[in-house]
Structures are given as C-alpha cells and as structure tokens.
Amino acid sequence: MSYEISAGRAVRAHRPPRPEPRSDRERWQADYARRLFVSDLFVLVLIVGFAQLIRFGGAGIEPPLTAKLPLEVGYFMVSTVLVLAWSAMLTLGGTRSPRVIGSGTDEYRCVVSASLKLFGGIAILSLLLRIDIARGYLAIALPLGMLGLMAERRAWRHWVAKRRAQGDYRTAMLVVGSPEAARAMVAAFSRDTDSGYQVIGVCTRDEGTLADRVLEVGCHEIPVLASDHDVIDAVRRTGADTVAVTATDNLGPADFRRMAWELDELGAELIVTPGLVDIAGTRLTHRVVADMPMLHVEKPQYDRAKSIRKDVFDFCFASAALLAIAPSLLLIAAAVKLTSRGPVFYLSERIGRDGHPFRMIKFRSMYADATPHLDALLESNGALFIDAPTDPRITPIGRVIRKYSLDDLPQFLNVLRGEMSIVGPRPQHQREVDSYDGVMRRRLLVKPGLTGLWQISGRTALTPEDALRLDLSYVENWSMVLDVLLIAKTIGTATRH
C-alpha cells in the first residue's frame, strides 16, 4: 500500500520536471515499461492483423467500413486505429505503471479491464455514429488480444524472474519498525522472492548502541543501520530505493509527511504496511476518514468456504476430471497390479471437516509386504529414511507415480463422496490432529483438499509453521476465484514436471 501525501504533490508542482530517473529502481522500471510498450504493440499488430485476415481473407480483399462518413474507410485503417487506441488504453489503464508491472493478478486484471473498456467505447461510438463494424472481426480481435497480451506479460515476468535471480531488476529496501514487526516483514519479503524486494537493512527503535546490531530472521542476519528517527540518513548512506514502514511507536503523522517529502527528493518510494499477514486483498477495503487512510478488514470467510456452490463446483470438476483421466487411471491401476502383489489402492485414514475421519484413496506405491524391506533398510542405514529415493519399500512403478503425484488421482473419488474438496488444507492424520491447539484446529473448519496453497508452495520444503500458515490463510480468505487460480497453478506445476 503506497503512502502518498497531497501536500507533497503540491511541493513538487513548484519544481521543474526531472525527466531522468533518480534511482536504480526508477531506471529499471522505466526500462521495463519501454519493453512492455514495444511488445504490447507487437502483439496487438499480430492479433488485429490476424483478425482482419481471418474475417476478410488474405487475397487483398478489404471491404470498406459501413458508415455514414464523408470518406470511404477501409479495414486496414480501422485496424491501424484499433491498434493505436488499444495501446493508448493500456497506457491510460495503468498496465505499465510501476505499481502494477510484474504483480501478476493485478497486472492481468488491468489488461482485461483496459481492453473491455476500449471495446465498450467502440460499441457506444458505433451506435451513436451509426458505424457498422464487422462483429466477427471484433469477436476475434478482443478475446485473442487479451489472451495474447496476458501471455506476453507472463513471458516478461519469467524473464524478470531470471534477471532477478542474477541480481538485476531488484529493489533495495529498508524496513522501518519495531523489532518484532520488522522481523515479520523481513520474513514475508523473504518468502516472496518474485516481488523483487531485497531487504538491505532495518531501522528500528534505539535500544542502546546500534553498532554491529543485527536482526535475526530465520537463517538470515539483517543489519540494523539506524534508529527509526534517522531513516533519511540511512537511505543516503545505502542508496536504498524503497522504505517500508510497519508498526512503530516512534513515528507520528507529521513524521510520515516529512519522510515522504524527503524520500521524494531522493527518488525513493515510501510504503506503509499495517502489519497484517495472510489477509487476501478481497477482504480489504480502503477509504479515507478525516484525512486519514483506513483499512477495513472483512471477517474470515469460514462460512463461505463451506458454501453449496463450492460443493457443486467440486462435484462437477471431479466428475469431469474422472471422465477425462479414466484411461490413465486404468493404465496406472494395471501397472500397479502387474508389477507387485497386493491391492491396487491404498486406503489411509485421515481427518476431515469437523474432525470426522474418512479413508483417503491412493494408488498403492509400496510393496504389500513392506515390513521385511523396512527391516533391511534399518539394518543397512541404521536409521529410518521415509520417502527417501533409496527406500526399498517403494515399488519401481511407485517411484514414478509419486514423482508426478499420480498416486493422488483416485482422491477425486473422495471428492465425489463429499469427504474431500478439490482445493483445501492438507489432509491430516489422527496423531497430528491430537496435537492441535485452538489455532491449528481451524484447519478442520473446511474439507481437506487434493491441492492447496501448500501444494504450489513447495510442499516438500515447507516447515510445519509455513504449512499451518498457508492452510489457515486459505481457510480465512476463501473465494471461488482463489480456487480456480490454485487449480490452474497446480496444473501448471504438474505439467512442468
């Protein structure tokens, strides 16, 4: 959430414009915006040209536009104007602004919104001016154009991610706040490496001498550069591009205003966070009361996550998925049966919504007589390595189906039986549930899922604390849009393997 001061804009109005970027962040953002402008224009030329080609043919046929105009206008001119107007609408819609570029969902939403507004304006103008533009031409250009633009933006995001992995296109950030709040913010930025923010130091309350002080966050040590009253001096010394302020008792409204003015002189950005963690944007409403920005946080979405429409969606999606993958299920079942003795399926007791147990269905990936193999493992290694590549309990076909998560496909049957959901928290064992405290039991408010936030966040590398945080975040922030996005990301992750 950016913190902007109207008085600061009034002060800037008296200064001459500065066309040159004032910081590394502004330089790479300007460079990135130029690249987006050129690639957007290229995509639009291709898509609009393709729409004209499909609608009117490629043999030099270009019928005139049906309209009461003094001059005859051909569709080549219409396509040219459409490309230029579309590009201009993308600019006016803020799709290349520093607040949006590289932000994923927000960027795509702005692209779709700008495109729909353009075609809505075209429809209104054609009605008022009685211009009859071929509907098939527009019907091809609009959806293909939006898809093409979003695919292009996604490709650029991958390019930026690679550059950031090499140390480029990063934003050097100072975190300002109390030690506890600063530690939470640093941890949050550490988890979201795709954001491009690199915390280079912390400014916190003065507790004795600040010399050689560090803030320990996990396995990282972040240097404490100054007190929260000396932020501007720290920015000058480090060349930081952004200052992120979280909960602090030492900065008042006048301090924020002065900080905003001075950071603007340095070309640095000011961000203020209320310290909320794992709250979805759909639950936040921003408004200004008595010249003070306020954030209203909606209550957690527990009831919505148990709605009938989620159950209907789960049933329909699971039915369609089972029909689509039925041949694959038969092949896997045959492979499991023919390569080792024992049943095709493995039934594991898990705990579902409201603490009710159920039997989760999986393809068997271990030998039915796994105990002798386990004894051999203990004798050879002296320790138990569960899920290790050398685990002799896992069958050859079991290694394959585990690698690609194919052993979980029969859980669509659990969804049809109403025991699981397509998206939800991780299914838990009884021994895990027995150790739950009041916070952890919130996982049981909804059905466990085949996939979820934990699935697309590197489930094998998650700590128990991170897994709990992701599960609770899903339960509290549920929406159908979130479900669809998580399903799409899960499919993308599975296909990349």
Write the layout of secondary structure elements.
Elements: H1 6-13, H2 24-56, E1 66-67, H3 75-92, H4 105-128, E2 131-132, H5 135-165, E3 171-176, H6 179-191, E4 197-204, E5 214-217, E6 220-227, H7 231-238, E7 242-245, H8 253-266, E8 269-272, E9 284-289, E10 292-297, H9 308-339, E11 345-351, E12 357-363, H10 370-381, H11 396-403, H12 411-416, E13 421-423, H13 430-434, E14 449-451, H14 464-476, H15 480-496
Parallel strand pairs: 3-4, 3-7, 4-6, 7-8, 13-14
Antiparallel strand pairs: 1-2, 5-6, 9-10, 11-12
Helix pairs in contact: 2-3, 2-5, 3-4, 4-5, 7-8, 9-11
Structure description:
Helices cover 49% and strands 14% of the residues. It has 3 domains: 24-166, no CATH class; 171-277, Rossmann fold (3-Layer(aba) Sandwich), CATH 3.40.50; 304-495, no CATH class. It starts with 5 loop residues before the first helix and ends with a helix. It has helices at 6-13, 24-56, 75-92, 105-128, 135-165, 179-191, 231-238, 253-266, 308-339, 370-381, 396-403, 411-416, 430-434, 464-476, 480-496; strands at 66-67, 131-132, 171-176, 197-204, 214-217, 220-227, 242-245, 269-272, 284-289, 292-297, 345-351, 357-363, 421-423, 449-451. Mean pLDDT is 80; it is low at 1-16 and 382-387. The chain has a 6-stranded mixed β-sheet. The protein contains 15 helices and 14 strands. It is a multi-pass membrane protein.
